[in-house]
Every structure is written in structure tokens, then in C-alpha cells.
Specification:
CATH topology of the largest domain: Beta-Lactamase
Structural class: alpha/beta
Distance between the termini: 61 Å
Radius of gyration: 29 Å
CATH class of the largest domain: Alpha Beta
Number of domains: 3
CATH architecture of the largest domain: 2-Layer Sandwich
Number of strands: 15
Helix content: 40-55%
Largest sheet: 6 strands, antiparallel
């Protein structure tokens, strides 16, 4: 049993973790990492690991590994019964081994491969509903000291907290996945996207969108490409009195200038050579509902005046028609351009800008809302895993750290593409940092660049990055060149120049 006088620091740590476990929305991975950090600190351990049991293949995976060799450790797996952690999982029994070399259960392979001398190990099982779901182990007590029974008892308490955290996270994930599945099903039927975002700034924007939805005013949504402007347009429509009416989307940048007018406003038979019959335009299709004009900054000046007329009088003339058509349409517009600069330089009508910008609405880039990165990444991960029928459990801590440190020039759209590619490329149950193939981030480059010229440093980066992409594609140069977005002949040339064989 514990000493009658309980260490104040340990008691405070336990209370803090229990409070987090009972939080309304558990962040499982972050909490497990905190539990593991606390366990190592309070038992005075040098390194620590949390392994999870996969009941299907009877293997243990390093879910979290902390310490100087943490990232290297996470590439290993253990069979049930293999090594000290495997023995603890199989026998559901805690273990103190203060001299690993004298214990036949000790597996020296991992320590030797990562060059990390191991003297002692403290390992306890995580039990949930009479089943071992994982193991927490502490490696090497500091100052070459020996682990005690009190250390073991404290670690068992932390293991119980970790098991409860995993249970809560699984229940939450199950509910959240079901919500996402139902949302996706409903949204696909209506053509809408699932809205994902929990950061304070995005929740504030969503609140503004809901309030703006109750008005009839035009809204101009601005923000970088890929931030999710269309999703906010959908939310405005779905929360408006027009929710049951049509929501019509027009990508103004995707239509040639000579077709855009007919696409927006329609035409009558004989208006031009290929006009063999009357045609409804998008504004007529949206009558009673909402029209979303994406990339509004791409509309040519000649057509901007006609759009202004719709905003002012709710009427327009079809191409080739002499009579006006009246519609009841709310206009939502979006652009990734600096629209005020476009006005100043004469490429966008000032009067149209003010008519559209009744309710200005700016979407911040993903790099300014880091709290959304992991929620979006996990949503895309589950979505793509279902679509590809691949069993991907999650991301390694190294991959998570890489996602959180990246600047996301392509915003949410880039994140979705990267996660989709990682799921396709991954050969394990956890997405590794190398699977993400993030350009300019996470590459293993020799940090000792002193004395190198800029060209030498750049060549070193190129060599490491190209090697990684080639390895992920099993040295198939055609596939690798597609991932690198370069010609295959140019890839061959680079390989020759950089000495890659």
C-alpha cells in the first residue's frame, strides 16, 4: 500500500488528470501523453511508452513513446508475449525488472537497434473490462537507481487512468463517427458538406453565419483558396428561411467568358448559333433560394454591370431576350482576391462591390486556427479509410507534430489531399510522418550544414526528399514523378545529378 503521507505533487497530478478525463469533450491522445509524462516524472524514469494491443493480430503497437529515442521506438511492434511489455500484456501482471540483462523475457533487439542502453524496466497492464488493452512501461530510473514497489503502485494508478481515457475516447469517437456518417449521408443527398471545426475563431464565424442567415442581405465571403468559403455559404443557406429552397453554386472562374452570361442568366432560342432552344440560367434555377457565386472576382467587367442590375432590381434579361425576368434570389459571393485592390485598379466595379459587401465575412487561413488541424485531419482520415476499406487507426505523434508545425499554404483543401494520399500510401495501421510527404517539412536532413554553400544545402534537401518519395513508391519512377509533380525524364535527370541509384 501507499505510504500514509501521500506526496502532494503526485496527488495534485492525479486530481488534474481525473478532471481532464471527465472533461466534456476528451482529447484522448493529448491526455494519454500527459498521463505518460506524469507517470515518468513521478517515478523518476528516463523514458516511457504506451503500447496498445490489437486483438485481431495479437500485436502491441507503440501508440506514444517519450524520451530521446521516442520517434525511433514507434516504428517497432511486439507480438503478444514477446519482450517484457508483451509478457505483461499476455499475463495481465505488473512487473519490475531492475536488471534487464538477467531477465530472459527482456528483448534487447529494440534497444540495440536504436542505440539506447536499457538497465531497468517498470511495466504495468492497462485493464478494461477484464481485458488487457495495452501496457505502460517506464525505462531506466534516473541516476541508475532501482524501481520500487511504490513506483509500481503509482504506475498502476496511471495505467487505470489511461485505460479510462481510452474508453472515453473510443466512446466519443464512436458517437462522433456515427454523427459524421449520418451528416455525410444527409449532406450527400442535399449536396452539402459536413462542417468540421472546433476552434474558437471558427465557432465565432459560424455564429456570425447563423445570424447573417436570418437576413436577406448579400454576403461577400473572403479568404485564401481552400479555407472553406463554400462551406460557410452552405451554412448561411441551411440556417436561413430559404433552407428548403434551391442552393445553386456557380464557379465563375471555371466558365469561359463567352459562356458565363448564358450560364448565369440563360438564353432564348436563336440567341446565338448553338442556341437551339430556350435555356434557364442559374439565377432562374435559384428562384426562391440562394445562389453562391464562387470566385466572383473573375467575372468580366462587362458582365458585372448586369449582375449589379440583378442586385438592384431583382430582374435581368436572358441572352437574346427583350423582356425582363424577375427572380427572388439571395446572393452569396466569395473570392480569394484582395477585392478592394481589384476595385482600386479598375478590375472590379466599386458599386457592385458595395452591393455585395453588405455583410463582409472573412475566413481565416488554417495556419491561424491550429485547433482545427487535428479535428479536420481525423475527419478526413476516417472518411478516406471508409472509402478505401483500409484499417487506419490514427496518426503517430511524430505525424501529428508535423501536421501542427506545417504552415498549410493550401489550407483545408491541401490537408484533405495530404491525408487522402497518406492513407493510400500507408503500409501500417498508423499514418507515419513519412507518409504525409509534406514538402519543406519533416525531411531528415543533416543538421550540420556549416561550410556548405546554398546550392549544396538545397541539393542535400532534394536528395533526401526524392529518396523518401521513391521509397514510398517502391522505386517506381513514374509514380514518384507524379507525386513530385515533375516529368519522369526530369526525375531521372535529378537522380543522376544527385547520385541517387
Amino acid at each position: 500500500m501507499f505510504n500514509s503521507i501521500i506526496d502532494a505533487e503526485k496527488l495534485k497530478t492525479l486530481i488534474e488528470i481525473n478532471t481532464l478525463i471527465n472533461a466534456e469533450i476528451p482529447d484522448g491522445r493529448s491526455l494519454l501523453k500527459k498521463i505518460l509524462e506524469s507517470a515518468a516524472r513521478l517515478t523518476n524514469g528516463e523514458s516511457s511508452s504506451l503500447l496498445l494491443v490489437d486483438n485481431e493480430n495479437q500485436k502491441l503497437y507503440f501508440e506514444i513513446a517519450l524520451g530521446p529515442k521516442g520517434p525511433a521506438v514507434k516504428s517497432f511492434t511486439l507480438n503478444m508475449g514477446e519482450g517484457i511489455a508483451g509478457w505483461v500484456a499476455q499475463n495481465r501482471t505488473s512487473l519490475i525488472v531492475n536488471d534487464v540483462d538477467s531477465d530472459r523475457r527482456y528483448l534487447s533487439e529494440i534497444s540495440s537497434k536504436i542505440s539506447y542502453p536499457t538497465e531497468s524496466i517498470l511495466a504495468v497492464p492497462m485493464i478494461l473490462k477484464d481485458k488487457c488493452i495495452g501496457v505502460i512501461e517506464i525505462i531506466n530510473k534516473k541516476n541508475h537507481a532501482k524501481f520500487s514497489n511504490e513506483d509500481l503502485q503509482w504506475l498502476e494508478v496511471f495505467a487505470g487512468q489511461a485505460a479510462l481515457t481510452i474508453q472515453n475516447a473510443k466512446e466519443y469517437s464512436k458517437v462522433q463517427n456515427e454523427v459524421y456518417r449520418l451528416q455525410d449521408q444527409v449532406n450527400r443527398q442535399g449536396g452539402f458538406h459536413t462542417f468540421v471545426g472546433k476552434s474558437k475563431i471558427i465557432q465565432e464565424k459560424l455564429d456570425i453565419a447563423v445570424r447573417a442567415a436570418q437576413t436577406k442581405s448579400s454576403v461577400l465571403i473572403t479568404g485564401e483558396s481552400g479555407t472553406g468559403k463554400e462551406l460557410f455559404a452552405e451554412q448561411i443557406h441551411l440556417n436561413s428561411p430559404r433552407a428548403d429552397a434551391p442552393f445553386i453554386r456557380v464557379n465563375c472562374a471555371a466558365l469561359p467568358e463567352h459562356l458565363l452570361e448564358s450560364e448565369l442568366f440563360g438564353h432564348v432560342k436563336g440567341a446565338f448559333t448553338d442556341a437551339h432552344r430556350d435555356r434557364y440560367g442559374r439565377f432562374e434555377m435559384a428562384d426562391g433560394g440562394t445562389i453562391f457565386l464562387d470566385e466572383i472576382g473573375e467575372i468580366p467587367l462587362a458582365l458585372q454591370s448586369k449582375l449589379l442590375g440583378v442586385l438592384q432590381s431583382r430582374s435581368f434579361q436572358k441572352v437574346g431576350a427583350s423582356e425582363s425576368t424577375y427572380v427572388d434570389v439571395r446572393i452569396l459571393a466569395a473570392t480569394n482576391k484582395d477585392i478592394e485592390q481589384e476595385v482600386e485598379e479598375g478590375r472590379f466595379r466599386e458599386d457592385l462591390y458595395y452591393r455585395l459587401n453588405v455583410l463582409p465575412f472573412h475566413i481565416p487561413p488554417l495556419r491561424e486556427r491550429p485547433d482545427d488541424i487535428m479535428e479536420l485531419a481525423e475527419y478526413f482520415l476516417h472518411k478516406v479509410s471508409r472509402e478505401t476499406s483500409k484499417k487506419i487507426r490514427g496518426l503517430t505523434q511524430e505525424a501529428i507534430d508535423l501536421l501542427l508545425s506545417y504552415q498549410w499554404p493550401g489550407n483545408v483543401r491541401e490537408l484533405e489531399n495530404i491525408i487522402e494520399r497518406a492513407v493510400v500510401l500507408s503500409s501500417s495501421e498508423y499514418i507515419q510522418a513519412s507518409d504525409l510527404l509534406l514538402q519543406g517539412a519533416g525531411t531528415e536532413i543533416d543538421e550540420n550544414l556549416s561550410g556548405k554553400t546554398l546550392k549544396e544545402a538545397v541539393d542535400q534537401f532534394k536528395k533526401h526528399y526524392i529518396l523518401r518519395v521513391l521509397e514510398k513508391n517502391n522505386w517506381n519512377q513514374t509514380k514518384a514523378s507524379k507525386d513530385l509533380d515533375i516529368q519522369r525524364t526530369y526525375l531521372s535527370k535529378l537522380m543522376k545529378e544527385l547520385g541517387i541509384r
